[in-house]
Fold each of these.
Amino acid sequence: MSSYNFMRALVLFDLPTDTKLNRGNATRFRNYLLNDGFTMLQYSIYSRLCPDRDNANTHLERVKKHAPHEGSIRMLMLTENQFTNMEVICGKKTEQEEYISNEQMLLF
């Protein structure tokens, strides 16, 4: 299976944290993402590897069900090939990004 079949689901969000209720909602949402197999790419950007678009769409529907009612949440789907070709301008790739990139190189 080539990396073009794999999808990367990215959840990008900006959630209010000005009240105790909002902080709790934001924490519950982040914990939901982690429990659903997403990993933190940056503080409010989480990523999940999916075997295909159908699976990525399943996770999109799950994210919608668990999203707080306030704030801004977006989900972007990329092919794994597009994701691994992401250019890091400042900083470095996460340990998981390095691991997946190296593992995929072994597939070819």
Amino acid sequence: MTHRRHFPHPSIRRLPSYLRLLLRLRDEGLPKVSCTRIARELDLDSTQVRKDLALTGITGRPRIGYILADLIRAIEGFLGWTRCTNAFLAGVGNFGRALIGYENFRHCGLNIVAAFDVTDEKVGTEVFGRSVHHMRDMPVLARKLGVVIGIITVPAAAAQKVADTMIESDIKGIWNFAPARLELPEGIRVENVELVSSLAVLSVAMKQN
């Protein structure tokens, strides 16, 4: 039996920050970088940085650190950003439109190939070059295009129904921006983005200041 390795989520969440820094340092002409430099730039502990980078399978050399180009490739490969994964987005409101138009997703290996909605004035239109289809057409199109990631940007009351349609479409991973907890079968991966919770943390911090 093959056991799936568990990677700590906090470490994974830090890797894009490392990558942004490394790309900047590369543009500045730096050929190598150490954990100490990364930790200092990002206000982190160097031991934690070393552990995080070890997840990618790369190892640094004592007193030398990492070859910058190799480290960038290692992080991008670990995150799966060296290959393009097609995704569907459901919910073409203001937020959904903003995500469709965010071109930097392509640098992260995510390509939103089509959008879905149920309102007549949106179905049949285009948003940033992506066609908007009716939700009922998702299963056929998902199988035709081999789409395995779904993005939910609908109101909370509609989120579960959209998730059910994505499951019917053989989508295996859901990026959920709706303020709703989804009931999903085993084997479906979901990442819930709690925008209001994040705002609450900021609001309390501002209040304390």
Amino acid sequence: MAQEIERKFLVSVLPPNIESYPNNEIMQGYLRILDDGTEERVRKKGPHYFYTVKSGKGLIREESEKKITEKDFMELWPKTRDKRVLKTRYDIEYEGVLIELDIFSGHLEGLIVAEVEFESEEESSKFIPPQWFGTEITHDERYKNKYLALHGRP
């Protein structure tokens, strides 16, 4: 598994010209969510399909992801009923990092979250968020997608 170093923030004001950034519709459903932080999910992102396992909590987590076929996704998707998130993800380049801005829909309508992944903890700690970022929620488990899928907005 590869390490994922990620910080997460609430967003209350969208950046200017949001419609000009590349974006994809995302359908994400959870097959298993364990008490130790391990999650097993499937995702459709634009025309691509993925099966992912994540483990751990907080800033640094382990992640393993592989591409799957549309057929595989469609077979697994019904097993994620009542454990899903729907969102549009915008990719925003900002001072050498990629901000993934998620605007949720469905039962999470109105929630907007930004995620930034880093190569190292040091790089993460030096990051200065843009002014349109709100409260940091990296360590707030209630804003993890798996929690949102099960319980809705905090």
Amino acid sequence: MQNRILVLGSTSPYRRELLQRLGLTFETAAPKVDETRHPGEDANALVRRLSEAKARAVGETWPDALVIGSDQVAVLDGEILGKPGNRERAIAQLSAASGKRVRFLTGLCLLDSATGEAEVDVVPFDVVFRQLKPAHIETYVDREQPYNCAGSFKSEGLGIALFEALEGADPNALIGLPLIRLCRLLERHGLPVL
């Protein structure tokens, strides 16, 4: 029986859909956070900081809740890939990723807004891309229009055709919310999924 309010600090439909899989009742709230990378901040530190900042921003309006914050970046050749925003940048990102390994880092924070206690973790997941022909990249981008997705693909859709291999402990992390780790955090805070 769920007696704590659970709040997902995200407007992402992908994260909302993932959390719904757990069968828990939850609210959603948009975190108002400046997501600008700090000078010298590496990808791991960035997603860790933003995940906690999102949870704390939402926690201010939910004073007695368990608040989930999450953030994700893709890293290719040591550089952070952002969301492409348009067709040209999506094609450029996928062209650069062709035949390479891209590491996705998904930050996860569970904040108890009543106590201010936050647990933060970063879950890695690697995607190994096939050698992609320009025509295949353009066809994929035109069909899925992944302009709001880090790395320019949707692994839960046609993006799966771009890959040679997927490597990691939790495939949900690739979509944006590491459910395996989240289940353990929720249980520790008195909200078991089972």
